[in-house]
């Protein structure tokens, strides 16, 4: 039976995908927590490397509106191009793709908590480390996240990267630095950070309660604005392609 548009649509949490089992475990835990928080069905999909694919997950979600939330920390290629294209390939016109997880104050709060757990104290140096991207729009999001964290730690933070972009974290960090990973889940990038000769490396953002609240906020904003009723078009402007909303409030 097709769901009425007036009913609360399920959530599709979409991540990149990795063969490292630690990554999918975090995504699954986020999905479980979001389902409990929102009291709606939450499905998981991956845009690359592993399944279930976006098409698989949409079939599992059934007919009717779906809100897709990219579990990404920046709006790069996978958020702006790959995910909308994969949705369009299914023929579905009832899927809204809302803004990704980051940058957002809740993400930065989680990073700060992870830093404190790693031994950082006010006044200590911080090195902001992201995965890296060749997409300038994604890098702009990373810079925005670094500014947000910088305000919390009282320092101007310039992002550095594990791969692809520059400067490389290995070239800029020092023995007195605490590394703040702009990473959602453990994996090869975090293992590389853990090998750096620094004062400490914080854990990835993971399933911090603030992330669950952010997922709930993104979802509710999409439902409130009824963006799930607007067709998913792969060739409209970028704001429309990700569910009309870029951010449900300024980050």
TrEMBL record:
Pfam families, per database record: CbiX
Domain of life, per lineage: Bacteria
A GO MF label: lyase activity
Keywords: Lyase, Metal-binding
Keyword rRNA-binding: no
Region feature (Disordered): 232-251
Coiled coil (UniProt feature): none
Record CDD domains: CbiX_SirB_N
Name under which the protein is recorded: Sirohydrochlorin ferrochelatase
Organism: Saccharopolyspora shandongensis
Classification lineage: Bacteria, Bacillati, Actinomycetota, Actinomycetes, Pseudonocardiales
